[in-house]
Amino acid sequence: MPSEKEDDVMKNVTFAEGKKFGDWKIGKTIDEGGFGKVYIATSISDPKKVAALKAESNEIEGGSAIKLEAMILNKLNANGPVPHIPVVHLCAKRKLYCYMVMTLLGRNLRKLKSTNLVVNNGFSRGTWSRIGIQCLYALKYVHDNGFIHRDVKPQNFLLGNETDSERARIVHILDFGLARPFAVFHARENKWIARRARGTAEFRGTLRYTSPNVHLRKEQGRVDDVWSLLYVIIELNGGKALPWQTDSQRERVEQMKLNLPAKVVMSNMPACMDKVMPHLASLDYYQRPDYHMIFKCFWQVMENEKITPSSKYDWEKDEPDKSVPPASWENPAGPFFQSDPLGINAPPTPAEAALTEKSGKKHGKK
Q: Is 363's pLDDT higher than 60?
C-alpha cells in the first residue's frame, strides 16, 4: 500500500492527456513506477512522430535521476544516433518534477520473458544468444564512452517499438540513474584516463544481478557490468533459475555468489560459455574485459542452434522484414567487439589520477 507521501509524489507526475511539453503533447500512460510515469508523446509539428515522455518527481530521495540519464544519453549520441542507445529529444527540470522526451521503445526483457510461449519464463538458446550479443554491444558502447552502468538487469534492456522497423529488433539499454564515469578523456593529453578506484564503495545495483565485487564493496568497473549481464543471460536460459533466484536475503545471496563454483552457477549453460565466468573472475577494476571472446561464445551458441541473426525471435510471429539492413552486431567477425578506443588496462599514474578526479566528479554520481 503506497504511503501518503508516495501518493503526493505521484501527483507531481500525473498529467492530463493533451498537456504540452515544448513541441510534444502527451497521451496515455504506458508505464508507471514508484515515483514516476512514462507517457506516449506526439510531436505537435509532425503528428506522425511519436516518442516517450518520462517524468519523475523531484521529491524522491536523492531527487530525480532524469538529468543525469539525459546527460549520459546525449553524450552517447553526441555524433548522431547510434545502435542500442535511445535518443533524447527534450529534457527539462520543473519545480516539482523532471522530464525528458526520448525514443519510444517496446517491451523490456523481463516482460518478454514472462510472456514467452516458446519457453516457459525464459528464452530459447537461439534467442538469448542474440540478445546477449546485443546487450554486450550496448554495454561496450557505454564503456567506450567512459561510463559504467551499475544496474544491469532485464528491465533495463528494451526492444525497439514494433512500429519502428529499424529499431524493432534492436535491444536498447536504458536507466542510467546509477551510472558513474570510470574514465575521462583529456584533450590536452589526447587520451582516456581511468579514475582511480576508491578503497571501498557502497552497494549499487540490483541484488540478484550484482557481481561478487559489489558484495565485497569494491569499486565497480567494466567487468562488473559484464558479470551482471552474464547473470541476466543465465536467468534467461530457458527459465533455468540462478541459484539465488528466489532469495531476497543479501547475506545468503552474497555467500552463494562468493562461494559457489562457476560450474554450479553455469550448470545449465552450453559448454561453449564455460570460459566466460573464469575470465571475469580474473579481472580487476581497471582491466578491459575480452568482449570479443564473450561475443564469440554467444555466436557459437547461435551456430550450435543453427540460428542466424535474421531468424525469428521467440516472441515474433512473422518473419523479419528483409528490407531492413543488417545491424552492426550481426557481423560474425565482431570488429566492434575487438576495438579498444579507450586503451585502458591499468591504473592511472599519480599525475593522471589528479587530472581525472576533478573532472570525473562533474559527470556523475559517486
A: no
Q: How many helices (H) and strands (E) does the chain have?
A: 12, 13
Question: What would the pLDDT profile of 240-258 be if each residue is shown by its tens digit?
Answer: 789 999 999 999 999 999 9
- Assigned C-alpha cell, 86: 535511445
Q: With 50 as the cut, is the pLDDT of residue 1 above it?
A: no
Between 1.10.510.10, 3.40.50.300, 1.10.10.10, 2.60.40.1180, what CATH number should domain 106-360 receive?
1.10.510.10
Q: Hey, what's the cell of 250?
A: 543479501
The rounded distance, in Å, linking the Cα atoms of 258 and 158 is 30
Rg of the chain, C-alpha, whole Å: 21
pLDDT of residue 239: 72
CA 52 – CA 72 distance, rounded (Å): 17
Average pLDDT on 335-364 reads 82
Contacts of residue 331, defined as CB under 8 A and 6 or more positions apart, other chains included, come to none
Whether residue 147 has pLDDT greater than 80: yes
- Per the rule left: phi > 0, alpha: psi between -120 and 50, beta: everything else, 25 is beta
Q: In CATH, what number does 4-103 get? A: 3.30.200.20
Q: SS3 for 159?
A: strand
62-78 mean pLDDT: 92
All cell numbers assigned to 143: 564503456
Cα-flanking dihedrals φ and ψ of residue 7, to 5°?
A: -60, -45
How many residues in total does the chain contain?
Answer: 366
**All CATH 1.10.510.10 domain ranges in the chain, comma separated:** 106-360
Separation of alpha carbons 79 and 102, rounded Å: 17
Alpha-carbon separation of residue 342 from 137, 225, 336, 353 (angstroms): 15, 17, 13, 16
In the block, cell 515474433 appears at: 316
Every domain of the chain with CATH number 3.30.200.20 lies at 4-103
